[in-house]
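This follows on from our talk about sequence and fold. I would like you to pick a protein and set down its sequence and fold. Go ahead and set the record down below:
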Amino acid sequence: MSTEFSRRDVIKLGVVAAVGGTAAKLMGDEPAFPDNVRLACESAFAALDRHLTDLVGKMRLDYGSGLRVWASGNYSALWPDDFLYPLIVHPSFMKPEELTRLAALLADSIVDMDALPDRVEASGLPVMNPGAATGNPHGHRMPLHLPAAWTRLLDYFEALGATLERKGEWAAAIRRGFDLVPFSCGLTYVNPQRPSVGYGFHDMAAITGFELMSSLALYRGLQRAASLFDGVIGAKVVRRWNGLADKIKANLHRLYDDEQGAFRAGSVDCRQVNVWGNGLAYWLVDKQKQKRIADWYFQHRDQIFKCGYTRQIAEPNGWQRQLVECPVGAYINGGFWSTGTGYVLPVLARHYPELAVDLIRQLVENLPAHNFTEALSADGKGHSNLTFITGVAMPMIGLRSILERRPLIAYF
């Protein structure tokens, strides 16, 4: 398999556009990997690409006027992250004119809102929070990562040739979203007295205080927004966004646990090592901390990996505090996700290549064996949500990070 992807410009859009500053220095200077790692990644990428293409072809929602977009498993709406991941690794899934039409439909749903939605249904109806569309939401406010997620979607759309016909209105909506995010000491803040969602994939956990995952997402989202909307929105806003991104990087140390050698999910509740988040934080720290993160993964491999899938935390008894009750050992609360493997593979490939190769092999074998389930429970049983496209696409982003020798966080 060639490591040149379907549309050459996707390399530029995923890694160069809107990176800026320190992250730009990281790009393209990663060391070459051993042949066994490279060959395992190429083979796995090709195998997963076949599965992804098949799933995307089957899992389509009608958004009107002949426009059909994919959705994961039982989820019948467009989430900005879940929709974008397949497009990052396979940009030919949609034509530029289709992306232009989709951006216009999404603008109708979003740009006049006071906050950014969790997702948009095929009818155009925005759903503001995680959870059932008509049931009790997970949390009481906008999940903190959403301004970054919607910005990244728009940034990729434009770089893939789409026209953002209401770009000024998008800029204003994204600005309102960022303005709703509480920052303290440079990091995103979740009130321990009234918890809500920081990052969407942790939406059932009550992670409070300074929060790692949404801080990392916003670090990149703010950088992207400053570039994407430069000249569209005021220079003062652009400077503020860049300044907030710089503060996030400068204050990540507040979540670093020197005893563990890794970053915690939160500073008050859920002071647990965030397995996925460390795969992003890795790229923003010095070499000593990078090695310690990789060592933590290796030392906890029996707790965090199963059949090529990866837990959000190492503790078998789950998150220390929950927003929504979830059985221990299942789903978010101690289940194993193929999505999570995409976060850890680039780190392991650099420090523990044999473990990375074994994880890749297990993942490729077990994804179809479990019908692409969203998560495996601790007992090895699959979650009821099958054919989860994100769980194929996110590991492919991790593989692409290795093959292109670029930091994973650059794709965020």
